[in-house]
Amino acid sequence: MDEITAKKDCDALINACWCGVTVIATAHASGKSDYLSRQIYRPLVESKIFETLLTLQMDKSWRTERMQYGN
């Protein structure tokens, strides 16, 4: 999937994941805390569908983080 830019994108992702589809998607955020705080991504955070976050850095390197969700 391309970039997540609207609520309908979030809804489609959640529906696909509930049907067993594995997805890779892009979202604009400066890092994990920014992603978690953006209202547009709230449904994705609440559904806990992503396991790993890959952050691309300005120097073209990247960092991966496991998503840690509260109970």
Strand and helix layout:
Layout: H1 7-18, H2 32-37, H3 42-47, E1 52-56, E2 62-66
Antiparallel strand pairs: 1-2
Folded structure, characterized:
The chain is of the alpha+beta class and 71 residues long. The chain contains 3 helices and 2 strands. The protein has a two-stranded antiparallel sheet with strand order 1-2. The model has no long low-confidence stretch (mean pLDDT 90).
Let me know the average pLDDT: 90
Structural class: alpha+beta
Using only C-alpha atoms, the radius of gyration works out to 12 Å
Shape: globular
Distance between the termini: 28 Å
Question: Beta-strand percentage?
Answer: 5-15%
- The number of helices is 3
Strand order of the largest sheet: 1-2
* Spans of at least 5 consecutive residues with low confidence: none
What share of the residues lie within helices? 25-40%
Count of beta strands: 2
State the major sheet. Answer: 2 strands, antiparallel
Q: Secondary-structure element sequence?
A: HHHEE
